[in-house]
């Protein structure tokens, strides 16, 4: 799980970061003081939870939240606001689908209550697995969508690249086009990034815009981005 903190007060960001590390050791934390840098990082890297100060150095955290909500993968991602401005709360709840608040000044116990709630919520979402059923001759195979890293087209056959119990496997299927499979998957986390590739965006580590490449998490390799699909990726 990866948490992005946008906070221009280093004391506060340190307190939140330390609380997260004590609460859950296996969480990656990135911290930014400026909204624009936070947005750039979130665009090129998959983030699970956002903790945003409403007052940032360059522009407001509420505006940053609006920009994040315009990115498909973050349409429903949990956002926690850090604020001392009660007037901003109603706007955030109504328009930005805010998950929770930390009202300044706050205590470490209040941070832990929010973390327990939002991290637990995110874990529960990940545990509910969607599946896809694929017919091959007289057999029907069922795959968890969360286990599909990407799908590559080889003419009349498709190769499913899977991650099961931290082991990468590959399976060939026939009788389906990439377009048909994308329709069957029907999940916004999956995008076609190239004429030969469908990608699960949860496995994106970073995006190299200069070379039109997607780097996958845990050194799983790279996926090319086709010119026709640039808008859908960026």
**Low-confidence spans:** none
- Order the strands across the largest sheet as they lie in space: 2-1-3-4-5
CATH topology of the largest domain: Rossmann fold
- In what range is the share of β-strand residues? 25-35%
Order of helices and strands: EHEHEHEHEHEEEEEHEEEEEH
Largest sheet: 5 strands, parallel
Any idea of the CATH class of the largest domain? Alpha Beta
Q: Level of helix content? A: 25-40%
Number of separate strands? 15
Task: Give the overall silhouette.
Answer: elongated
Number of domains: 2
Q: Mean pLDDT, rounded to whole units?
A: 86
- Termini separation: 22 Å
In terms of quaternary structure, the protein is single chain
> What is the CA-atom radius of gyration, in angstroms?
20 Å
Question: Could you explain the architecture of this structure?
Answer:
The chain is of the alpha/beta class and 234 residues long. It has 2 domains: 2-127, Response regulator (Rossmann fold, 3-Layer(aba) Sandwich), CATH 3.40.50; 131-233, LytTr DNA-binding domain (OB fold (Dihydrolipoamide Acetyltransferase, E2P), Beta Barrel), CATH 2.40.50. The protein has helices spanning 10-23, 35-44, 61-69, 87-95, 108-127, 178-185, 230-233; strands spanning 2-6, 28-32, 49-53, 79-83, 100-103, 131-136, 139-144, 148-154, 157-164, 167-174, 190-194, 197-200, 204-208, 213-216, 222-224. The strands form 4 sheets. Strands 2-1-3-4-5 form a 5-stranded parallel beta sheet, with helices on both faces. Strands 10-9-8-12-11 form a 5-stranded antiparallel beta sheet. A hairpin with a 2-residue loop joins strand 8 (148-154) and strand 9. Helix 1 (10-23) packs across helix 5 (108-127). It is elongated. The model has no long low-confidence stretch (mean pLDDT 86).
């Amino acid at each position: 799980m990866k948490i992005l903190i946008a906070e221009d007060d280093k004391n506060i960001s340190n307190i939140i970061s330390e609380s997260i590390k004590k609460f859950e050791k296996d969480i990656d934390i990135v911290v930014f003081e400026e909204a624009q840098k936070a947005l750039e990082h979130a665009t090129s890297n998959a983030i699970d939870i956002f903790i945003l100060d409403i007052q940032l150095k360059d522009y407001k955290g509420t505006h940053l939240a609006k920009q994040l909500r315009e990115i498909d993968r973050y349409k429903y991602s949990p956002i926690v606001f850090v604020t001392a401005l009660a007037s901003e709360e109603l706007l955030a709840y109504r328009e930005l689908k805010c998950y929770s608040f930390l009202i300044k000044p706050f205590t470490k116990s209040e941070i832990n209550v929010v973390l327990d709630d939002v991290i637990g919520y995110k874990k529960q979402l990940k545990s509910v697995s969607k599946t896809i059923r694929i017919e091959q001759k007289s057999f029907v195979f069922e795959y968890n969508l969360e286990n599909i890293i990407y799908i590559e087209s080889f003419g009349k056959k498709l190769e499913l690249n899977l991650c099961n119990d931290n082991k990468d496997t590959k399976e060939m299927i026939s009788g389906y086009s990439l377009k048909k499979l994308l329709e069957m998957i029907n999940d916004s986390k999956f995008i076609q990034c190239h004429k030969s590739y469908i990608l699960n965006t949860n496995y994106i580590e970073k995006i190299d815009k200069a070379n039109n490449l997607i780097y996958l998490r845990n050194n799983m390799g790279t996926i090319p981005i086709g010119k026709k699909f640039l808008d859908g990726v960026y």
